[in-house]
Amino acid sequence: MVAAQFMAALEPNTVRAFDEYLREADKQMTARAMQAPAAAGPKEGVFGNNVGRSAGRGMVHDWSAAAFVLGGRKAAAIAVLEDFSRHGAIYPEVVEGRTEQREPGRTLGYHRLRKKKLLEVNLEVKYQLDVLPAAAGRYATRTAATEIVEIDDAGTKKERRLPPGHDHGFLWRLQTYWTLDETSEGLWMEVRSITLTRDVPLALGWAVKPLVRDLPRESLEAMLAATKRAVLQAR
């Protein structure tokens, strides 16, 4: 009953604002992929590039993170990132994953996601992962969510797919970039995640704010940590 009050609509001006932001970010990341790796590696940790930036009736969340895996190898990380069928066993938010199509430089995948923070959100997401032109020895990708569908009353007889853009607005757009640099000591992993959510309604901020403001960062941290564990296990 409470969740029913949160319904939101993705408006054209919000889409335009996000697309404009994403175009600039994509230019940065495609250029970044071609740069030679820094000898000292990036700074480890999680960093906010734009946190809750207004986009019409929506919000842009742009986070980056980096970690070093001692003894890690690039091939092991690539095997994790490109094989969506393994993600249900690796990533805590992924209930089910599968690889739907694979060809050189491109992978299409699917996730059934469950995100929970005060409220529970269930989503079905389709992705297109593209390997980007990169500096020698570097691996870089862009993963764009091509379809995001929220599942209402998930796991019950009333389960239904809500029309994209006419749902609770907890995830409307998602694009992720990975950069991998292998050294003699191990593997540097960098990830940047850019998402679009609804804004925070004043009357319902107590419930909506934790989902739209906190989850993008927490999801990124969990994804990087889980990838690191998988690479360590492969080692």
Class by alpha and beta content: alpha+beta
The CATH homologous superfamily is called START domain
Number of domains: 1
CATH topology: Alpha-D-Glucose-1,6-Bisphosphate, Chain A, domain 4
Mean pLDDT: 91
Text of the CATH class: Alpha Beta
**Radius of gyration using CA atoms only:** 18 Å
Poorly predicted spans: none
Q: Based on Cα principal axes, name the global outline.
A: globular
Structure summary, number of beta strands: 11
What is the number of helical segments per DSSP (H or I, 4+ residues)?
A: 4
What is the helix content? 25-40%
Largest sheet: 9 strands, antiparallel
How far apart are the termini? 48 Å
Can you describe what's shown?
It is a single chain. This protein is α+β, with helices and mostly antiparallel strands and 235 residues long. The chain has one domain: 2-Layer Sandwich (Alpha-D-Glucose-1,6-Bisphosphate, Chain A, domain 4). It contains four helices and eleven strands. It has helices spanning 12-34, 74-82, 87-90, 205-234, and strands at residues 8-9, 45-55, 58-70, 94-103, 106-117, 119-131, 138-152, 160-161, 166-167, 173-182, 186-198. The strands form two sheets. Strands 2, 3, 4, 5, 6, 7, 8, 10 and 11 form a nine-stranded antiparallel beta sheet that branches. The radius of gyration is 18 Å and the shape is globular.
